[in-house]
């Protein structure tokens, strides 16, 4: 069964693979599609089997190929005002609307459409497809997939192209990201004698103030060379969630913060964890000086490496040759490219669509961008056939 890229996009968007749900129906479809083309694929399921990554190898069993990497999950549509069914591709005014058309089932469709073309062309170097899960909630699905590819003898590709939306520009660097849940455990008393208790919310405010100070210091400093191209050109600290307390006249017993860092290349998550943990310990000691029962618990969440620009990287050289883009591009959002690079692959980010449309109501990719992506994939297959 050979389908056009557009037909594949229709099918992929039709699977509502929001991260909180399973993606197995989509994976089964891809598995069947590849099997009909004579291509075996390998599933790498999550711990409870509710989701799976999938990878496949096309062409000769030799090293030196290219991986086209994408994720299969999408963000929710809850509370968003859509003009069309988000899980049906609707073409209007030169745009293809639907959840995931831009981020990033458009690229997934293009990668899958490259398979029959690669078979027809008789490629001399391999094309590999790698589709992950749970990218949208911390890039959780790619690492076990990549590790499985390496451990089970997949011929080693020398180039990885992660097709997140970049308007077909070649992105050679992105920030890393690390997140935590921070639980402040205070001690409840009536607010009229608040000094005898520990207000978890007010103590959490001290950590929020520290985050603001770190951002202000970052903005004031001269950026390091690796950080300078980024916006902002420093590691930024962010609190996106806060919840706690029971009533206005009771010192809050509990407060939870969703705490995270967007880390520039050249700095490490370990460095920032040490600073963060030191500040948490300082606040916790202040809490315990009032009530020894008080405590702060840090629960690690995602830890996603950045993509560091490579010197004479094979992925960058190939992507620039295929696109004609010689400008320097970096982004502040994270992708799975850093996870491939961390495992020794040369990687770039390059795909159709505008990141500004990602996660939005009425998400779309323009027909022009989709066609540019298709032309890129065709040039890649021609390159592998040489």
Write the layout of secondary structure elements.
Blueprint: H1 5-13, H2 24-36, E1 41-45, E2 52-58, E3 66-71, E4 90-92, E5 95-97, H3 105-121, E6 127-132, H4 142-151, E7 159-162, E8 171-174, E9 176-185, H5 200-220, E10 236-244, E11 254-263, H6 269-290, E12 295-304, H7 314-323, E13 329-331, H8 337-342, E14 347-349, E15 364-366, H9 367-385
Parallel strand pairs: 3-6, 3-7, 7-14, 8-13
Antiparallel strand pairs: 1-2, 2-6, 4-5, 5-15, 9-11, 9-12, 10-11
Helix pairs in contact: 1-3, 3-9, 5-6
- String of helices and strands: HHEEEEEHEHEEEHEEHEHEHEEH
Distance from N terminus to C terminus (CA atoms, Å) equals 26 Å
Main-sheet strand order equals: 1-2-6-3-7-14
Number of DSSP strands?
15
Could you estimate the helical fraction of the residues in percent? 25-40%
Number of helices: 9
Q: Give a quick account of the main beta sheet: strands, pairing sense, barrel closure.
A: 6 strands, mixed
What would you call the structural class?
Answer: alpha/beta
Mean pLDDT across every amino acid position:
97
Strand content: 15-25%
**Rg (C-alpha, Å):** 23 Å
Task: Identify low-pLDDT runs.
Answer: none
User: Which term fits the overall shape?
Assistant: elongated
